[in-house]
Design goal:
5 strands; about 20% strand; single chain; HIT family, subunit A
């Protein structure tokens, strides 16, 4: 099931506003979050347009969480954060997804909750491409 107004379902210009598609995982897609004040921040978005994690089968939940773990391991290997924060939101965009937000000791917002979009650091296309290649190399 897809929603014509959902960036995760439609991709293209809707997704381009905040993210860059990296690749498909087993039951989800991996997206690089364009705002990179937390180096390596990504989103794992479930393959279908469902709102809640309770709306999918146990098998699909396990596969989705395995995708989250796979992405997190790649982020740890590629960027060596001290911690990865995990956020599952969707009050307005009701598509099951999880933000993986690397945190670095002494860095921006260390010891606190991450901002959804601090709107501070955006990269060049070449820098995004290099980050994506580092993540893919560690999946």
């Amino acid at each position: 099931m897809k929603d014509i107004n959902c960036a995760y379902c439609q991709g293209g210009e809707l997704l381009d506003k905040f993210g860059i598609y990296i690749c498909d995982l087993s039951v989800s897609q991996l997206i690089l979050f364009k705002e990179q004040s937390k180096k390596g921040r990504v989103i794992v978005a479930y393959k279908d347009h469902v709102s809640e994690i309770v709306d999918i089968s146990e098998e699909e939940r396990n596969a989705f969480m395995a995708d989250v773990v796979k992405a997190s391991k790649a982020i740890h290997k590629a960027f060596n954060p001290n911690k990865v924060n995990y956020g599952a939101y969707g009050d307005t965009g009701c598509h099951l997804h999880m933000h993986l937000v690397p945190k670095y000791e002494g860095g921006d917002e260390w010891g606190g909750v991450f901002q959804m979009n601090p709107n501070k650091i955006y990269l060049s296309d070449a820098e995004y491409k290099e980050m994506i290649e580092r993540i893919k190399a560690n999946l």
